[in-house]
Amino acid sequence: MRRVRIVLYFLLISLITGVGQAQDSRSQNSAATSTSPTSTPPKKAALPADRVILKVGGVQVTRAEFESMIGEFEPHGDPDKPGAEDKDRRSLGDDYASVLMLSQQAVASHLDASPEIRRQLIVDRMQILSDAQFARLMSQTKPSAEEISQYYSSHLEDFDRVKMRRLFIWKVGAGSTNTKGLPPDAARARADAILQAAKSGGDPEKLTESFKGSEEGLLDPEAIPFARGALPAKLDKVAFALKPGDWAEADDTPDKLILFHLVERDRRPLSEVSSLIEQRVHGKKMELKLAELKKKAGIWMDERYFGAAVATVPREQRPVSNPPSKASKLAEKRGEKQ
Class of 152-267 per CATH? Predict the structure, then answer.
């Protein structure tokens, strides 16, 4: 793993450029090659896995070792250019040999004994081991289909969905940033008329017609679905308290009045939300597992240095991430993996 991380430096320099040039070349020659017959050269016999294919000083590298290091970047060649795969692999070999050479020179120069390099190596080793254990825990805590189904059954309301139309009535005047709209009193009167018509059994739809295509407001032309939690908390509470056919005032600000018209209400099926539930359950199980491991490890932190413990985000709302990643970022030794 150490050599994989080091060799990425050269791979990112040479491979990205090389692959891009190869792709451009293939696109430029595709028209010509598509109309002419081509012959595929016979593939070379694979060398034994234990065959030494590279030597740098006293270090020997077998085919298996080399391919395990650069497997993700293994060239596939250009079918229109015989020998392109060998050329790309040669470039990888040159880069890999350069990495080995430079690392050997660093050791010969005793750079590995310098405090800064030693610190970096310690942080890297700690992070690699931490990532490996974290991946193992992620695999061990993967939710089962039964756990996902049980979570869905016990949190049915979380997956309710509303389909509604929103009416925005723009305001102008004191406190508003709008240049077009209605004075606050006029906006309030229009909103109250719509709400009263809906309450008394009238036809609020007629009262909303004037907002279509106007500069006084905006009415959703079609009902829009919203899952629970997709709207701001205040608006979410109003939306999910309505019954089909209801109108209600959702918000009143210096810039606008918002009315909701609930058209339909349903519940998202398990098949649609299973991946979301899996993430939630997985996150909760990982949090519990990490908390258990921390308790067993006997972690203590000096509050005079780190400060008092702060309230945490509820488990189901927190992403599953490897805590040591923050330490490595602060050490400026690890980039993002994905």
Answer: alpha beta
The better pLDDT of the pair 41, 249 is held by 249
Torsion angle, CA of 171/173/174/178, rounded to 10 degrees?
60
pLDDT score of 143 = 96
Is this prediction's pTM over 0.85? no
Give the pLDDT score at 45: 62
CATH 3.10.50.40 domain extents, the chain: 152-267
Per the CB < 8 A criterion, the answer to whether 180 and 215 are in contact is yes
| Whether the Cβ atoms of residue 162 and residue 226 lie closer than 8 Å to each other | yes
pLDDT at 32 over 60: no
**111's tokens:** 């750079």
Closest CA to 189 of 171, 203, 202, 201: 171
The band of 84, judged by pLDDT with boundaries at 50, 70 and 90, is: low
- pLDDT greater than 80 at residue 338: no
pLDDT at position 83: 62
Handedness of CA 152, 154, 158, 164 (dihedral sign): positive
3 state DSSP class of 169:
strand
Q: How far apart are CA 156 and CA 30, in angstroms?
A: 54
Can you list the positions of beta strands (E) in 27-104? 52-56, 59-62
- Indicate the residue type of 271: S
Sign of the torsion formed by the C-alpha atoms of 53, 56, 58 and 64: negative
**Nearest CA among 198, 197, 191 for reference residue 246:** 198
The closest of 249, 262, 253 to 190, measured between CA atoms, is: 249
CA–CA dist 41, 24 (Å, integer): 22
Residue 171 has pLDDT above 80, yes or no: yes
Burial of 195 (0-12, 13-18, 19+ CB in 10 A): middle
Span between the terminal Cα atoms of the chain, in Å: 17
**What's the CA gap between 307 and 257, in Å, rounded?**
44
